[in-house]
Known about the structure:
This protein is an alpha+beta fold. The protein has helices spanning 16-25, 36-48, 68-74, 76-89, 103-109, 117-124, 127-137; strands at 27-31, 53-57, 63-66, 96-102, 144-145, 148-152, 157-161, 169-177, 189-192, 198-202, 206-213, 218-220, 231-239. InterPro entries: Pro_4_hyd_alph, TPA1/OFD1_N, uS12_prolyl_hydroxylase.
Amino acid sequence: MSQPPVLRLNPALDPAAFADAYAREGVVRIPEVFEPEVVDRLAGILEQTIDWDIICSDERGGAEVISRARRGELGDQAVADRLHAATLRARSGFAYVYLGYPMIDALVGGRDPGHPIHALTAFLNSPAFIAFGAAVTGERGITKIDGQATCYRPGDFLTQHDDTGVGERLAAYTLGLTRQWRPDWGGQLLFHDDQGDVTRGFAPAFNVLTLFKVPQQHSVAPVAPYAGALRLTVTGWLRNDPPNGRG
């Protein structure tokens, strides 16, 4: 069996080429962030190997995580009721429904020992990736980078919010691993101004790293019911809290 490719950033990347745009615009897109064989491996992990949890917001905006085992306990109707309730809450506030895999918690908690997703979690917290993020964002106090693998199916969504934390979130990121997408399938990462207008939007993409300042109003547009693919990303924050704490 052939060995997986070495997990590394594309050596052709120059972080200085993206730092000015980030400083000026508060957001930057970095294409071809990995070499082809590396990104193909990463996309395959999300496409084929993840035992996804259902993630939906509760009455307080917190996450209810419904694992496969929990779905069996609840039954299909109870799960459907929870998703419907989250969708109704989206009419008037912060709410979301999508599939997720908590990468930091899974690694720290010993979930799925030996799973290839753990190598990506470790890479995101490697000196090389942290240094790259610091060079692009200008944030020199990064101690850790958390991560959640996400899968948006037709109908999934994430309403407007600004990623406000308690001071530990220095910047947000998304790593696009969606191989093919049509713009009318929805799922765009949207940024909003105070008047409610969309100031910019990015369609799901492949091998593209997006970094943006927080707090900043943004959302993920609902994926259309006729979408012919899944929106696959890894998302999280560049943080300055203790590196051994959970994300």
